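To the wet lab folks,

You asked to see what we're planning to order before we commit. Fair enough. Below is the target structure as tokens, and below that is the sequence we designed to fit it. If anything looks off to you, flag it before the synthesis order goes out.
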């Protein structure tokens, strides 16, 4: 069998050199995609930044891309997720179930500490709409250092955004499971690389005064090159590349091409299976690890709509009305010019003067623009329906059908977002679990009582793999107080009150004062305690409400079945009597 000459040549090269060539190939493969993303970002920025103003081709008086991004992003993430941690199936250990709630509190504390939604999840969503939402999760083992613009403390888990321009993938992979390498480029101060003791073989590194690398990065839109030239000279930096090798489960740090061919650092990946990277995308193409971003499908419509709007605007600005008169009728023209509104003017020859309007946009343009806007509204999750901006149907049933279809599309995006976030959360939980030094005092609410607990290595129960991780549905969507009030009201009237009698028979009653406080909080009523007061005796206030006790005895003769339709109207009165009995009162006493 003949030996492959390419394989022979490749095997003669050092492994870091082969990694560098793989990076160069990936950069060449994604060059056009990154350039297209820059155009999308320019339209999104709408000439706000100096760099975008220089390169943008069409003004955006009607920025459809911004409208779509601001419609979709709040549906995907607005606040930190709430973790749902439970024992894995088949595990019968009550201590694991109890500690799972403590782990949920510890994760919530970590999410707040690192501002997960603000610093990671929301930027990941924005990045995913324009390309790929890429997140790297890890833990800082030593030295406080700034990476990706974030300052990380020693021993703190982190989840940072990796820009598409910095991301490194395997150009030969058809899906993420086939990837043989995955990594990213980043920049560090030269002094840190030399003095930290973490790196070696850095002698051939070339200091770079640039603030950013390729001209397709988002910074090239937001920051004009000449504006930041002086700033760059203050911080000479070098570019490094971290490459995760799944087969070896190690992370290798190498220099850029032509700046050395030796490994600068090698560490084992000490996280869970799957590596440090997570990628969010929505429209996946067969046999490709790079999804098609939603904004790309909107770009052409945005371009043509704004081109038409600009053309119609210019036509309207050129519109003018002028008067013309026959030569020799100068006196008549002067009388008309000097006259005011409503004046009577006598002319020697009235037929010599006429008025003409020239310019104005073509009447055919407006319906065409309306057609384009309606087509844009139909792309992706229907923008008008999802954003609540317009009704698209004549009847309620048709509108509900359209809303259902739009919800199906946005729900698919929400599902992708939740799956990626769940993977990030599980990795953060792993680093939290494997940290032997962490001690977190927490408050856990059990049966209405606040208990002080501790999350630490000594209090852990079971093994990390004894737990399953999920995210509470809709926990990342922020609801305004009015919406919370409506949902709470629907829950109380639709479920709590209809089941109040059954609950009372099982020893559970509705705590009306606390429910009233919850309603008042959502309605921003702060004076409720001044006029809505409990009259329960002090000894009962301290002990709480007594459970309902079933009355003994035989049913009275002639008693009707309350389940019959003709007696359903008295259910509310029965429920009030049940509540009064529980509180030790009779109807007469009220």
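Sequence we intend to order:
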């Amino acid at each position: 069998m003949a030996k492959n000459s390419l394989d022979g040549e490749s095997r003669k090269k050092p492994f870091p050199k082969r990694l560098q060539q793989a990076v160069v190939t990936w950069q060449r493969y994604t060059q056009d995609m990154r350039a297209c993303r820059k155009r999308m970002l320019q339209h999104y920025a709408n000439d706000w930044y100096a760099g975008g103003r220089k390169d943008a081709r069409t003004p955006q008086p009607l920025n459809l891309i911004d409208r779509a991004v601001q419609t979709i992003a709040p549906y995907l993430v607005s606040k930190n997720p709430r973790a749902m941690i439970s024992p894995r199936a088949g595990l019968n250990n009550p201590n694991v179930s109890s500690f799972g709630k403590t782990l949920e509190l510890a994760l919530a504390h970590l999410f707040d500490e690192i501002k997960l939604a603000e610093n990671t999840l929301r930027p990941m969503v924005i990045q995913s709409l324009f390309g790929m939402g890429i997140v790297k999760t890890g833990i800082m083992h030593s030295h406080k250092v700034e990476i990706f613009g974030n300052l990380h403390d020693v021993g703190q888990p982190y989840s940072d955004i990796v820009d598409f321009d910095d991301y490194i993938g395997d150009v030969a992979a058809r899906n993420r499971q086939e990837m043989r390498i995955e990594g990213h480029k980043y920049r560090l101060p030269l002094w840190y690389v030399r003095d930290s003791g973490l790196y070696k073989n850095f002698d051939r590194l070339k200091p770079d005064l640039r603030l950013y690398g390729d001209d397709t990065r988002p910074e090239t839109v937001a920051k004009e090159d000449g504006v930041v030239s002086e700033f760059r000279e203050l911080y000479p930096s070098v570019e490094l590349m971290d490459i995760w090798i799944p087969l070896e489960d190690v992370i290798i740090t190498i220099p850029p091409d032509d700046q050395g061919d030796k490994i600068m650092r090698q560490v084992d990946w000490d996280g869970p299976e799957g590596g440090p990277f997570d990628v969010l995308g929505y429209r996946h193409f067969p046999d490709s690890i790079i999804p098609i971003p939603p904004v790309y499908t909107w770009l052409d419509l945005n371009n043509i709509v704004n081109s038409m709007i600009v053309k119609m605007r210019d036509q309207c600005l050129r519109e003018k009305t002028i008067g013309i008169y026959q030569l020799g009728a100068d006196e008549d023209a002067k009388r008309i010019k000097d006259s005011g509104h409503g004046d009577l003017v006598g002319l020697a020859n009235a037929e010599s003067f006429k008025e003409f309007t020239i310019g104005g946009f073509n009447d055919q343009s407006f319906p065409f623009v309306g057609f384009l806007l309606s087509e844009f509204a139909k792309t992706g999750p229907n923008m008008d329906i999802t954003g609540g901006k317009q009704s698209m149907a004549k009847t309620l049933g048709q509108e509900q059908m359209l809303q259902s279809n739009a919800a199906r599309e946005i729900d698919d995006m929400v599902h992708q977002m939740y799956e990626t976030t769940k993977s990030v959360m599980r990795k953060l939980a792993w680093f939290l679990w494997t940290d032997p030094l962490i001690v977190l005092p927490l408050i856990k609410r059990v049966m209405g009582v606040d208990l002080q607990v501790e999350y630490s290595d000594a209090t852990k129960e079971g093994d990390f793999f004894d737990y399953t991780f999920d995210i509470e549905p809709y926990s990342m969507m922020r609801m305004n107080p009015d919406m919370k009030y409506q949902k709470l009201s629907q829950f109380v009237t639709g479920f709590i009150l209809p089941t109040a009698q059954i609950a009372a028979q099982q020893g559970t009653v509705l705590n009306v004062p606390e429910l009233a406080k919850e309603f008042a909080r959502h309605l921003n009523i702060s004076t409720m305690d001044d006029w809505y007061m409990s009259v329960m005796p002090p000894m009962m206030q301290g002990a709480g409400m007594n459970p309902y006790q079933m009355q003994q005895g035989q049913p009275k003769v002639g008693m009707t079945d309350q389940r019959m339709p003709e007696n359903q109207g008295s259910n509310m009165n029965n429920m009030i009597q049940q509540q009064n009995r529980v509180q030790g009162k009779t109807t007469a006493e009220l």
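Structural context that might help your review: The chain has a mean pLDDT of 78. Residues 15 and 311 are 57 Å apart (CA to CA).

Thanks,
Computational group
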